Amino acid sequence: MKGNSLYLDGVSVVFDGFRALNNLSLIVEPGEMRAVIGPNGAGKTTMMDVITGKTRPTAGTVRFGDHDLTRMDEASIANLGIGRKFQKPTVFDALTVFENLELALKAPRGTLAALHWRLGTEAHEKIDETLSEIGLTAGAQDLAGILSHGQRQWLEIGMLLMQDPQLLLVDEPVAGMTDQETEHTAALLRRIAGTRSVVVVEHDLEFVRALGRKVTVLHEGTVLSEGPIDQVQGDPRVIEVYLGR
Ligand SMILES: Nc1ncnc2c1ncn2[C@@H]1O[C@H](COP(=O)(O)OP(=O)(O)OP(=O)(O)O)[C@@H](O)[C@H]1O
Ligand SMILES: [Mg+2]
Fold first, then answer.
1. Short-list 155, 182, 170, 180, CA closest to 34
2. What band does 87 get if pLDDT is binned at 50, 70 and 90?
3. Is the separation of the CB atoms in 174 and 166 below 8 Å?
4. 172 Cα nearest atom in ligand 1
5. Whose Cα sits closest to atom 26 in ligand 1?
6. pLDDT-based confidence at residue 110 (cuts at 50, 70, 90)
7. Which residues are within 8 A (CB) of 39 and not within 5 positions of it... i.e. 6 or more apart?
C-alpha cells in the first residue's frame, strides 16, 4: 500500500532535566495499527506531542515519509494528514451527528455558516461512508447532546476521518467506556486501520488484545518490549515494571 511510514529514531525530550522520552525509536508502516502501552509517566502522550509538533524533541529524528516533522509546526503537520484524538470530545451538542460530521469536513473554514451551504453529492457520500464506519448511521439525525459517552467518542473519531487522515493518533480512547462500548471501539479501529495508520495508546489490556495487533511497551521514555500481546504480557521485564503492579 502506498502512504507514509512514521519513523522515530533516537528521540529524546528533556523537560527541566527530566527525560520524558529517552532515545525512543519506533516505526509504524502505512496502514498499520500499533498499540502503545506502558505505566503512567512512560512518555506515551509525550510521544504523540512530538509527532504532532506540540513538543519539540531535544534530540532525534521524527519523519512521516519524507517529511521532517521536527521542522514543521502543528498546523502543517495536521495538513500532512496526521490527526489526533484527544480524550475530551469536541462535538457540538446542539447539532446532529450528521451536522457535526459536515462541520468537520468544512472545519478549515470553521464557521457554523458553513452548515447552510449546499452539500455536494461527494460530501454527502463521504458523510454517509463515515457514519457507517463509526456505526452511527441509524443515529445520524440525533442531536450529539443525547449520545452516550461511547457514541460521542466514535463521533469524534468520525470527525477526524472526515479530514482523510493518513495517520490517526488516539490517546486512551476507551477510558470511561462500558465493556460493550470498548468492544465496539476495538472493532471500529480495526475497520479504520488498513486504509490509514493508527497509533492507539491505552491502559486497558483487554481492549489491546481485541485490537489484535503489534504492541509497543514504553517505560521511562523508551521501548521496553515490542511484539504480539501474548509475547509482551509474558516478557519478565514488562511484568516487573507494568503488569506486576
Ligand atoms: N510539559 C511538560 N513539562 C514537564 N514535564 C512533563 C511535561 N509533559 C510531560 N511531562 C512529564 O513527562 C513524563 C511523561 O509524561 P506522559 O504524559 O508522556 O506520560 P504517559 O505515558 O502519557 O502517562 P499516562 O499513562 O499517565 O497518561 C511524566 O513524568 C510527565 O510528568
Ligand atoms: Mg498519557
1. 170
2. low
3. no
4. 27
5. 40
6. very low
7. 219, 241, 242, 245
Q: Report the DSSP beta bridge partners of residue 57.
A: none
CB 37 within 8 A of CB 208: yes
CA distances from 38 to 43, 149, 238 (A): 8, 25, 8
Atom from ligand 1 closest to the CA of residue 203: 25
Give the pLDDT score at 1.
Answer: 52
Q: pLDDT by residue (tens digit) across 174-214?
A: 999 999 999 999 999 999 998 899 999 999 999 999 999 99
Per residue in 91-107, pLDDT tens?
A: 999 999 999 999 988 65
Query: Grid coordinates representing 180?
Result: 460493550
Q: Where are the alpha helices (DSSP H) in the chain?
A: 44-51, 74-79, 97-105, 121-133, 149-161, 179-192, 205-211, 229-233, 236-238
Measured in residues, the chain has a length of: 245
Q: What distance in Å separates the CA atoms of residue 147 and residue 240, rounded to the nearest whole number?
A: 40
* Ligand 1 pocket, residue 40 CB under 6 Å: yes
At 19, give phi and psi (nearest 5°): -85, 100
Whether 159 and 123 have beta carbons less than 8 Å apart is answered as: no
Specify the CATH number of the domain 6-243: 3.40.50.300
- 179: three-class secondary structure by DSSP: helix
* Contact between 69 and 235 (Cβ < 8 Å): no
